[in-house]
Specification:
2 domains; 7 helices
Length: 149
């Protein structure tokens, strides 16, 4: 069950129970009642957040946006990689797909892409082509420091 739903149920339960207590014992005014409910729900909310951390359904989208932001820094390098993997500009993917891996960008087989990359970088090329392009570029920059300076 989602923590927000639990919190809402507890808030309603606390409000109803305090309402019965205030009516039965006739203690205080409505202002004191509302203040008590607010304080109680705030305390329950803090406890619920600590005990029941929610999986954010937007987390994959947030991560994808972070990768896209990082990829924007490497636009030039990514275009170079695209030119190596697929020399024909008509068959190159749109550069808006820069947050994906090379396997997702091209319709080529993994062997063909690795062959072309090894022809360019040499047989010592060992970067994985199934990782996001910014990570791929960073790995290449670590291995081949004088590449694209």
């Amino acid at each position: 069950m989602h923590p927000v739903l639990i919190y809402a149920i507890l808030c309603v339960a606390l409000t109803v129970s305090l309402l019965f207590i205030f009516e039965a014992y006739q203690i205080g005014s409505i202002f004191f009642f509302l203040l008590s409910v607010a304080a109680g729900t705030a305390i329950i909310g803090k406890i619920a957040v600590k005990l029941l951390p929610a999986d954010d359904p937007m987390q994959p989208e947030i991560e994808k946006e972070k990768v896209k932001l990082r990829a924007n820094e490497y636009q030039r390098e990514i275009q170079f990689i695209f030119n190596i993997v697929q020399p024909d500009p008509k068959l190159q993917p749109n550069t808006k797909r820069i947050a994906e891996s090379l396997l997702e960008c091209f319709d080529l087989s993994e062997e063909v892409m690795l062959m072309r990359l090894r022809q360019y970088f040499g047989d010592s090329f060992g970067a994985r082509i199934d990782q996001p392009l910014p990570d791929f570029i960073e790995k290449i920059k670590k291995e081949f420091k004088d590449w694209v300076n």
